[in-house]
Amino acid sequence: MRSRLVFFVGLVVLVLGLADAAFACTVCVGAQTEATRKAFVGTTALLTFLPLAVVGSVVTLFVRRTLAREEREEAQRLEGIEGLESEAQRVA
Amino acid sequence: MEPVGTDGRAPMIPHGVFGMVIFVIAELMLFAGLISAFFIIKAASVAWPPPDQPRLPIEATAFNSLVLLASGAFLILAHRAFHRGDREGMRRPMWLALALGTFFVLFQGSEWVSLLGQGLTLNSSSLGSFFYLIVGIHALHAVAALVLLGVATARLGRGWLSPSFFGATEALWFFVVAVWPVLYLVVYL
To answer: Which chain B residue's Cα is nearest to A30?
Structure first.
């Protein structure tokens, strides 16, 4: 247990010591012109929000249809109960 | 007959439609990625379109785009007839949707042959690479959707077109129709 702890602490220290800045942001570093920078920002926004919008729409559709069906079934169930009660009263 | 869920009720959305919607969402992201790459390459270019490349046939493709949109409109008519229970009323719109979709694909193919003859190839420039890649992938989807549409039309003729299969066919064809104007605006204009 102690040796495992020493191993992981040593690993963390090694990673922190060897790590360096990557400068991987294409907007901050890679873009050569203003037009390219805007293209990167725009396309990043597109690829970020498009799946959220699409999946959100599908989920919303499912939820609405489910709620509508449950309302219909509840209404049918209540109609059925009222029908039985009125029949029972008539017979009585 | 539609399959039932474990509680004995019909599924909220037919399984075929749901599966096709998942596929369409994945393909939508594919096109979004391709369009994004195209935008970046275009922005990084010194001159766009490349001056030594043939011009894309904007007017002819605009006409072809209208043909594709008309195909989608006829499929909407078929959809309405289907949900009215009017199977006979579906036949003509389905055939027209299939015919117009086939015309679109063949016309695009002829435009490709013309552009290849003029020197716009996959390797000639970044415009050529992206044009054939993006429009080509759309064409693949269009062909697949046409095959489904053809099978759906045939099943309608035989009297056993299920809501699930028709819904899945619609989902793919509407995707092909809806994504094309975006591609036209991005790539051609």
So the answer is: B44
Q: How far apart are CA A15 and CA A18, in angstroms?
A: 5
- Contact list in B for residue A62 (CB cut-off 8 A) is 12-13
What is the signed CA dihedral for A28, A29, A31, A33, rounded to 10 degrees? 80
- What is the domain range of residue B176? 56-188
Name the burial class of residue B149, with classes exposed (0-12), middle (13-18) and buried (19+) by CB atoms within 10 angstroms of its CB.
buried
Whole-Å CA distances, B68 to A15, B22, B28, B93, B128: 56, 23, 18, 14, 23
Q: How many domains does chain B have?
A: 1
How many domains, in total, are found in chain A? 1
Taking the C-alpha atoms of residue B103 and residue B156, their distance in angstroms, rounded to an integer, is 21
Q: Check CB contact under 8 Å for B12 and A43.
A: no
Q: How far is CA A86 from CA A72, A77, A78, A91, in A?
A: 21, 14, 12, 9
Which residue type is seen at B128?
Answer: G
Q: Indicate whether B127 belongs to any domain.
A: yes
Q: Is A29:A23 a contact under the CB 8 Å cutoff?
A: yes
Q: Nearest CA of chain A to the CA of B43: how many Å?
A: 5
Cβ contact B137:B176 at 8 Å: no
pTM above 0.95, yes or no: no
Q: Per residue in A35-62, pLDDT tens? A: 888 899 999 999 999 999 999 999 998 8
How far away is chain B from the Cα of A73, in angstroms, using its nearest Cα? Answer: 11
Angle, CA of B53, B66 and B103, to the nearest 5°: 80
Q: ipTM above 0.85?
A: no
